[in-house]
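Below is how a single chain appears once it has passed through the pipeline. First comes the sequence as given, then the structure the pipeline wrote out for it. We keep one example in the README because the format questions we get most often are answered faster by looking than by reading.
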Amino acid sequence: MPKEFSNLENSTKAWERRILSGQAGSNMGNNLNGMGPRAASLFADWTDRIAAGELPPVPQRPQGKERNIVVSVWDWAKSKEYFHDEVTTDKRNPTVNANGPVYGVTEFSSDFMSVLDPVKNTATQIKIPLRDLETPYASPRTGFQSSVYWDEEPIWDSKVNAHNPMIDQEGRVWLTSKVSPNDNPEFCKKGSDHPSAKLFPVESSSRHIAMYNPKGRRWTLVQTCYSTHHLFFAEDANHTLWTSGGGQVVGWLNTKMLDETGDEQKSQGWTPLILDINGNGKQDAWVEPDQAVDSSKDKRISAGFYGVMPAPDGSVWASSLGFPGSIVRLNPGANPPSTALAEIFELPYDNPAVKGQGFAPRGMDVDRNNVVWAPLASGHFASFDRRKCKGPLNGPTATGQHCPEGWTLYPFPGPPLRSAKDYGSAESSYFSWVDWHDIFGLGKNTPIATGNLSDALLALDPATGKFTTLRVPYPMGFYAKGLDGRIDDPNAGWKGRGLWSTYATRTPFHVEGGKGTTSKVVKFQLRPDPLAK
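Resulting structure:
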C-alpha cells in the first residue's frame, strides 16, 4: 500500500469525522463543507476505494500526431516553491525574446521570479521588490495542521504574491504583483478628480502591477487603484495592459503613457460593468446589481473578471466564475471609463437550446475571429461566438441566457463521472490558450486547454471535435495553469518553435519523486513524424 494511504484511518466514518471537524485542514474542510452534507461521505468512500486498490480507467495510448510530440523538461525552483505560470514571448508577436529566458512567478510561495535559460540550461532567481516593506504576508504564518513533509512550518513566505507574467513588445516582463498594503492613494477614492474615481471610486486594492526590464535589470512598480489577477496586452497603439481581479471594476494601464511620463496616476483607469439596458448605445445613470431592471436606465452588474483577453476587434472578454457562471464582453468605447459598456452571456446550463449542460468557466482566451474559448467545470471546452446571436445584444432582456445559440460545448477526453448525464468528462481544466500563429503545428487558431487531471495539454480541432492530447509522461503530476508559444527561428521548422508551460501544482512535493521534487518547465514540440530528426 502506498505510504500516502497507509497512514490514513481506514474507516470512512473516521475520515468523514476528520473532514467535518476541520481536522483535514482548513482549505480542504471549508471547500468540502461548501459542497453540502454529502461531500464528506462521498470523498471518504473514494479514499477507502483507492486505499483498497481501485484505479481509474487506463488512458488511451497516443494516437496519430500524439506520437510525434517531443517533450523537454527543466528544473527551475526551490523545493518549497510552486509556480502559477510562465511566459516566454509576446502573444501578439511570438518572435519576441526568441531563444531568450523563460520567466515564472511563484504566487503565495515566495517573492522571487524564476528565470530559465533554455539554451545554457541554467536557472536563476530575481527578487521582486516592494515599495513598502511593511506589506503583510500573503498567506497565514500560523495555525497549520501538521504536514507529513513540513510539520507545522509555514513554507510560503511571499508578500508580493506575484500571480501572472506577460512579456511586451520590448521583451519586458509585466506581473500582477503586490507593491504596498491594501489602502489606496487618495486619487483612487471618492472626491478625487481622476475620471475613473469620479465614476466609481475604489478604496483599496489587494494586488498591483510590477514590470521587470532585463536591459539594466530594473524594476518599475505601479500601485493600481484596482486589484489585479491576470493580465494581457491589447493590440493597440498604447499597448494597453488589461487586467482581471478588480472585483467590482475592470482596470487597465496605458503602458505607452507610463513609459513617456512615468505618471502612474494618469496612466491607469478602471470602470464598473454597465449593461446598456435602455438600448441607446451610451452609458447612462444605472441601477445597482441588487435592484430590478429599469428599462429607462442602464444596470451595473457584479461579474468580476477572472480570465481576461483583449480581442482583435478592440473589445475585452473575460470569464466570471460561479454557477452557472458567465463570460463578459467589455466595449471600452472612445473615452473610457465614461464610454465603457458591457454585455454578459451566461453559461447555457439547463437550456434546451444547447446540447449538454455547461457551467462554471475558468481561464479563457479569444481567437482571431473574436470567438471565446473557455474550459468548464462541467467537463467541456466551450466556445462562444457572438456573431451567432439572433436576439438583441442590449436592452432589458439582454441580461444572461439571451444567446444560447452562440455556445458550442465540446466534451473533454477522458472518462465521465459515474452516472452523470449530459455532461462532459471528469476532466477539470483550469485555463486555455489559442494558438493564433500556428506555432505548434496543428493550425492557426487552435484552442488548447490545460488537462489538469490528464498530465497534459488538450488541443482541439473544432471542425471535428477531436482532441490531440499532449501528455507529459514523466515525472507524473504535470499540472499546468498557463501556457504560451514562441517562435525561436521561423526558418528551422518544428525545431524552431514550441509550446511552453510549467508544473504549477501548489504541492510539487506530491509530484512523482516526493519531497525535494521541484516545479519544472516543459517545452512541447511537434515533429512531422515520430522518427523525424
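Residues 49 and 55 are 9 Å apart (CA to CA).

See the next section for the split statistics.
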